[in-house]
């Protein structure tokens, strides 16, 4: 199990990204729009800089939803490699079976 504080911090970041996603997208489009004046683009860029750092989606860490482990994350299942292996052996993941050849 990962530290509870690490998981909570990541969940807080996920909520913040959802909260600011529309505003962040609008400001990014404004700052890249070449039809606007340079002053307007710079103002949009400064507004974007004033948003909270944790509202940036790049700061979200992929974590296993069972154990909270961040390393060895399998994106398709949303599990860490250890949890994936345990669940696969128990038959809890449909369509997944142990390879043998």
Describe this structure in words.
The protein is mostly helical and 101 residues long. Helix content is 50%, strand content 4%. The chain has a two-stranded antiparallel sheet. α1 (4-32) runs antiparallel to α2 (38-49). The longest helix has 29 residues, at 4-32. It is elongated, with a radius of gyration of 20 Å.
Mean pLDDT: 94
Uncertain regions: pLDDT < 50 for 5+ in a row?
none
Strand order of the largest sheet: 1-2
Head-to-tail CA distance between termini: 33 Å
Gyration radius over CA: 20 Å
Q: What is the helix/strand order? A: HHEEH
* Overall helicity: 40-55%
The coarse overall form would be: elongated
| Total strand segments | 2
> Helical segment tally?
3
Largest sheet: 2 strands, antiparallel
Q: Which structural class matches the secondary elements?
A: mainly alpha
Beta content comes to under 5%
Show the helix and strand layout.
Layout: H1 4-32, H2 38-49, E1 73-74, E2 79-80, H3 81-90
Antiparallel strand pairs: 1-2
Q: Summed up, what is this model?
A:
This protein has helices spanning 4-32, 38-49, 81-90, and strands at residues 73-74, 79-80. The protein has 101 residues and is mainly α.
Question: What features would you highlight for this structure?
Answer:
mainly alpha, two-stranded antiparallel ribbon, 3 helices, 101 residues
